[in-house]
Amino acid sequence: MLRPQWILMLLLCLVVAGIFAWLGQWQLGRAVDTAPREEGATEQVMPIEDVVEPGSYLTDPLVGQRVVATGAFVPDDFIVVSSRFNDGEQGYWVTGQFRIDAPTPTSVAVALGWAETLDEAEAAASALAAEAGETLEVTGRLIPDEGILPPGPGVDPFELTRMSPAALLGRWHDVTDLDVYRQFIVSDEPAAGLVTIHSPAPDSGTTVNWLNIFYAAEWVIFAGFAFYLWYRLAKDAWEKEIEDLEEASA
Protein backbone atom coordinates (compact mmCIF):
# COMPACT_ATOMS: atom_id res chain seq x y z
CA MET A 1 0.00 0.00 0.00
CA LEU A 2 2.98 2.31 0.46
CA ARG A 3 4.22 1.84 -3.08
CA PRO A 4 3.88 4.92 -5.34
CA GLN A 5 1.31 3.30 -7.64
CA TRP A 6 -1.01 2.46 -4.74
CA ILE A 7 -0.56 5.85 -3.11
CA LEU A 8 -1.60 7.44 -6.43
CA MET A 9 -4.57 5.09 -6.57
CA LEU A 10 -5.49 6.14 -3.01
CA LEU A 11 -5.34 9.82 -4.00
CA LEU A 12 -7.64 9.07 -6.94
CA CYS A 13 -10.07 7.31 -4.59
CA LEU A 14 -9.97 10.32 -2.27
CA VAL A 15 -11.01 12.58 -5.15
CA VAL A 16 -13.82 10.22 -6.17
CA ALA A 17 -15.00 9.83 -2.57
CA GLY A 18 -14.93 13.62 -2.14
CA ILE A 19 -17.18 14.04 -5.17
CA PHE A 20 -19.57 11.39 -3.81
CA ALA A 21 -19.60 13.10 -0.39
CA TRP A 22 -20.45 16.43 -2.02
CA LEU A 23 -23.29 14.81 -3.96
CA GLY A 24 -24.57 13.26 -0.73
CA GLN A 25 -24.50 16.63 1.00
CA TRP A 26 -26.32 18.22 -1.94
CA GLN A 27 -29.05 15.56 -1.80
CA LEU A 28 -29.36 16.01 1.97
CA GLY A 29 -29.75 19.75 1.51
CA ARG A 30 -32.61 19.14 -0.92
CA ALA A 31 -34.23 16.59 1.39
CA VAL A 32 -35.04 19.04 4.19
CA ASP A 33 -36.85 22.29 3.50
CA THR A 34 -35.76 24.43 6.42
CA ALA A 35 -37.22 27.62 4.96
CA PRO A 36 -40.80 26.83 3.98
CA ARG A 37 -43.06 29.52 2.57
CA GLU A 38 -44.72 31.78 5.06
CA GLU A 39 -48.00 30.62 6.54
CA GLY A 40 -50.94 31.40 4.28
CA ALA A 41 -48.83 31.89 1.15
CA THR A 42 -50.77 29.20 -0.71
CA GLU A 43 -54.02 31.07 -0.05
CA GLN A 44 -52.91 34.17 -1.97
CA VAL A 45 -54.42 33.83 -5.43
CA MET A 46 -51.79 34.03 -8.18
CA PRO A 47 -52.07 33.85 -11.99
CA ILE A 48 -51.38 30.26 -12.97
CA GLU A 49 -48.68 31.33 -15.43
CA ASP A 50 -46.74 32.91 -12.53
CA VAL A 51 -46.77 29.62 -10.59
CA VAL A 52 -45.84 26.98 -13.16
CA GLU A 53 -45.36 26.63 -16.91
CA PRO A 54 -47.33 24.18 -19.07
CA GLY A 55 -45.65 20.79 -19.09
CA SER A 56 -43.49 21.57 -16.04
CA TYR A 57 -43.61 19.85 -12.67
CA LEU A 58 -44.82 21.71 -9.59
CA THR A 59 -42.24 22.19 -6.82
CA ASP A 60 -43.24 21.23 -3.26
CA PRO A 61 -43.66 24.77 -1.86
CA LEU A 62 -46.22 25.53 -4.57
CA VAL A 63 -48.35 22.39 -4.25
CA GLY A 64 -51.86 23.50 -3.32
CA GLN A 65 -51.29 27.10 -4.39
CA ARG A 66 -54.51 28.94 -5.20
CA VAL A 67 -54.42 30.23 -8.77
CA VAL A 68 -56.62 32.04 -11.23
CA ALA A 69 -56.92 31.47 -14.98
CA THR A 70 -58.91 33.28 -17.64
CA GLY A 71 -60.38 31.48 -20.63
CA ALA A 72 -63.31 29.29 -21.67
CA PHE A 73 -64.35 25.67 -21.32
CA VAL A 74 -64.33 23.45 -24.39
CA PRO A 75 -67.97 22.31 -24.83
CA ASP A 76 -67.35 18.63 -25.66
CA ASP A 77 -64.76 17.93 -22.97
CA PHE A 78 -66.67 17.63 -19.70
CA ILE A 79 -65.66 14.22 -18.35
CA VAL A 80 -66.77 12.39 -15.20
CA VAL A 81 -64.13 10.88 -12.91
CA SER A 82 -65.33 8.22 -10.47
CA SER A 83 -64.12 7.03 -7.05
CA ARG A 84 -63.85 10.59 -5.73
CA PHE A 85 -64.22 11.06 -1.98
CA ASN A 86 -65.58 14.28 -0.52
CA ASP A 87 -65.55 14.52 3.28
CA GLY A 88 -65.48 10.73 3.43
CA GLU A 89 -68.33 10.15 0.95
CA GLN A 90 -67.60 8.40 -2.34
CA GLY A 91 -68.91 9.95 -5.51
CA TYR A 92 -67.91 11.59 -8.77
CA TRP A 93 -66.09 14.64 -10.06
CA VAL A 94 -67.09 16.56 -13.15
CA THR A 95 -64.02 17.83 -14.96
CA GLY A 96 -63.53 20.10 -17.95
CA GLN A 97 -60.89 21.28 -20.38
CA PHE A 98 -60.32 24.95 -19.70
CA ARG A 99 -58.71 26.69 -22.68
CA ILE A 100 -56.64 29.57 -21.27
CA ASP A 101 -56.26 32.93 -23.00
CA ALA A 102 -52.63 32.68 -24.14
CA PRO A 103 -50.56 33.39 -27.28
CA THR A 104 -50.39 29.64 -27.96
CA PRO A 105 -53.19 27.09 -27.38
CA THR A 106 -52.96 26.15 -23.70
CA SER A 107 -55.31 24.14 -21.51
CA VAL A 108 -55.61 23.07 -17.90
CA ALA A 109 -57.91 20.42 -16.43
CA VAL A 110 -60.43 21.76 -13.92
CA ALA A 111 -62.39 19.76 -11.34
CA LEU A 112 -65.69 21.64 -11.22
CA GLY A 113 -67.49 19.87 -8.40
CA TRP A 114 -68.57 16.65 -6.73
CA ALA A 115 -71.76 14.63 -7.15
CA GLU A 116 -73.02 11.72 -5.10
CA THR A 117 -74.37 9.71 -8.04
CA LEU A 118 -73.28 9.13 -11.60
CA ASP A 119 -76.62 10.40 -12.94
CA GLU A 120 -76.15 13.72 -11.11
CA ALA A 121 -72.59 14.04 -12.42
CA GLU A 122 -73.58 13.30 -16.01
CA ALA A 123 -76.52 15.71 -15.82
CA ALA A 124 -74.21 18.47 -14.58
CA ALA A 125 -71.69 17.69 -17.33
CA SER A 126 -74.42 17.95 -19.99
CA ALA A 127 -75.60 21.30 -18.59
CA LEU A 128 -72.05 22.63 -18.58
CA ALA A 129 -71.50 21.53 -22.18
CA ALA A 130 -74.60 23.46 -23.25
CA GLU A 131 -73.35 26.65 -21.61
CA ALA A 132 -69.62 26.38 -22.41
CA GLY A 133 -67.72 28.84 -24.60
CA GLU A 134 -68.16 32.00 -22.56
CA THR A 135 -64.98 33.70 -21.32
CA LEU A 136 -64.68 33.54 -17.55
CA GLU A 137 -62.23 33.26 -14.67
CA VAL A 138 -61.57 30.04 -12.76
CA THR A 139 -60.08 30.26 -9.28
CA GLY A 140 -59.00 27.22 -7.32
CA ARG A 141 -56.23 25.13 -5.83
CA LEU A 142 -53.48 23.75 -8.07
CA ILE A 143 -52.90 20.02 -7.51
CA PRO A 144 -50.33 17.70 -9.15
CA ASP A 145 -51.32 14.90 -11.52
CA GLU A 146 -52.47 11.80 -9.61
CA GLY A 147 -51.12 9.50 -12.31
CA ILE A 148 -52.86 6.78 -14.28
CA LEU A 149 -54.14 3.61 -12.59
CA PRO A 150 -54.60 0.53 -14.85
CA PRO A 151 -58.13 -0.91 -14.58
CA GLY A 152 -58.56 -4.07 -12.56
CA PRO A 153 -60.28 -7.28 -13.68
CA GLY A 154 -63.91 -6.78 -14.61
CA VAL A 155 -63.64 -2.99 -14.52
CA ASP A 156 -64.67 -0.80 -17.44
CA PRO A 157 -61.34 0.14 -19.12
CA PHE A 158 -62.78 3.51 -20.13
CA GLU A 159 -63.75 4.50 -16.58
CA LEU A 160 -61.46 7.12 -15.08
CA THR A 161 -60.76 6.70 -11.38
CA ARG A 162 -57.78 9.07 -11.07
CA MET A 163 -57.57 12.79 -11.71
CA SER A 164 -54.89 12.76 -14.38
CA PRO A 165 -54.56 15.53 -16.99
CA ALA A 166 -52.47 13.08 -19.05
CA ALA A 167 -55.40 10.63 -19.18
CA LEU A 168 -57.93 13.40 -19.84
CA LEU A 169 -55.80 14.74 -22.68
CA GLY A 170 -56.35 11.47 -24.54
CA ARG A 171 -60.11 12.17 -24.53
CA TRP A 172 -60.10 15.89 -25.20
CA HIS A 173 -60.88 17.42 -28.59
CA ASP A 174 -58.84 19.91 -30.63
CA VAL A 175 -55.50 19.10 -29.01
CA THR A 176 -53.17 19.61 -31.99
CA ASP A 177 -50.13 21.66 -30.89
CA LEU A 178 -51.77 22.13 -27.50
CA ASP A 179 -49.74 23.03 -24.40
CA VAL A 180 -51.16 21.33 -21.30
CA TYR A 181 -50.48 21.85 -17.62
CA ARG A 182 -49.41 18.72 -15.75
CA GLN A 183 -51.49 19.90 -12.80
CA PHE A 184 -55.23 20.41 -12.41
CA ILE A 185 -57.30 23.08 -10.67
CA VAL A 186 -59.86 22.23 -8.02
CA SER A 187 -62.40 25.00 -8.49
CA ASP A 188 -63.40 27.09 -5.47
CA GLU A 189 -66.93 27.50 -6.79
CA PRO A 190 -68.88 24.39 -7.82
CA ALA A 191 -70.84 24.28 -11.06
CA ALA A 192 -74.64 24.19 -10.91
CA GLY A 193 -75.92 20.88 -9.53
CA LEU A 194 -72.59 20.00 -7.93
CA VAL A 195 -71.09 20.21 -4.45
CA THR A 196 -67.90 22.09 -3.57
CA ILE A 197 -64.89 19.77 -3.56
CA HIS A 198 -63.23 19.69 -0.16
CA SER A 199 -59.68 20.93 -0.80
CA PRO A 200 -58.02 22.27 2.37
CA ALA A 201 -54.83 24.30 2.44
CA PRO A 202 -51.65 22.20 2.60
CA ASP A 203 -49.83 21.95 5.90
CA SER A 204 -46.99 24.42 6.34
CA GLY A 205 -43.72 23.81 8.15
CA THR A 206 -40.51 21.92 7.60
CA THR A 207 -40.88 19.13 5.08
CA VAL A 208 -38.71 16.07 4.60
CA ASN A 209 -38.21 14.33 1.27
CA TRP A 210 -37.30 10.76 2.20
CA LEU A 211 -36.34 9.90 -1.36
CA ASN A 212 -33.57 12.51 -1.29
CA ILE A 213 -32.39 11.17 2.07
CA PHE A 214 -32.18 7.70 0.53
CA TYR A 215 -30.10 9.11 -2.35
CA ALA A 216 -27.80 10.86 0.13
CA ALA A 217 -27.23 7.57 1.95
CA GLU A 218 -26.43 5.92 -1.38
CA TRP A 219 -23.70 8.47 -2.13
CA VAL A 220 -22.14 7.83 1.31
CA ILE A 221 -22.06 4.11 0.53
CA PHE A 222 -20.46 4.81 -2.85
CA ALA A 223 -17.78 6.93 -1.16
CA GLY A 224 -16.98 4.10 1.24
CA PHE A 225 -16.87 1.62 -1.63
CA ALA A 226 -14.18 3.73 -3.36
CA PHE A 227 -11.82 3.10 -0.40
CA TYR A 228 -12.79 -0.57 -0.25
CA LEU A 229 -12.00 -0.92 -3.93
CA TRP A 230 -8.53 0.54 -3.36
CA TYR A 231 -7.92 -1.85 -0.44
CA ARG A 232 -9.21 -4.85 -2.37
CA LEU A 233 -7.05 -4.14 -5.43
CA ALA A 234 -3.93 -3.61 -3.28
CA LYS A 235 -4.58 -6.82 -1.36
CA ASP A 236 -5.14 -8.80 -4.56
CA ALA A 237 -1.79 -7.54 -5.92
CA TRP A 238 -0.06 -8.47 -2.63
CA GLU A 239 -1.58 -11.98 -2.61
CA LYS A 240 -0.49 -12.48 -6.23
CA GLU A 241 3.09 -11.57 -5.32
CA ILE A 242 3.05 -13.99 -2.37
CA GLU A 243 1.82 -16.78 -4.65
CA ASP A 244 4.58 -16.00 -7.17
CA LEU A 245 7.21 -16.07 -4.41
CA GLU A 246 5.93 -19.39 -3.09
CA GLU A 247 5.98 -20.92 -6.57
CA ALA A 248 9.53 -19.62 -7.15
CA SER A 249 10.67 -21.11 -3.81
CA ALA A 250 9.08 -24.46 -4.61
Strands, helices and their partners?
Layout: H1 4-31, E1 32-33, E2 46-47, H2 48-51, E3 66-86, E4 89-100, E5 106-115, H3 118-131, E6 136-143, H4 165-169, E7 179-187, E8 207-208, H5 210-249
Parallel strand pairs: 2-3, 5-7
Antiparallel strand pairs: 1-8, 3-4, 3-6, 4-5, 6-7
Helix pairs in contact: 1-5
Give structural notes.
The chain has 250 residues and is α+β, with helices and mostly antiparallel strands. Helices cover 36% and strands 26% of the residues. The protein contains five helices and eight strands, in the order αββαβββαβαββα. The chain has helices spanning 4-31, 48-51, 118-131, 165-169, 210-249; strands at 32-33, 46-47, 66-86, 89-100, 106-115, 136-143, 179-187, 207-208. The protein has a five-stranded mixed beta barrel with strand order 3-4-5-7-6. It has a two-stranded antiparallel sheet with strand order 1-8. Helix 1 runs antiparallel to helix 5 (210-249). The longest helix is centred in the C-terminal third of the chain and has 40 residues, at 210-249. It starts with a helix and ends with a helix. The model has no long low-confidence stretch (mean pLDDT 89).
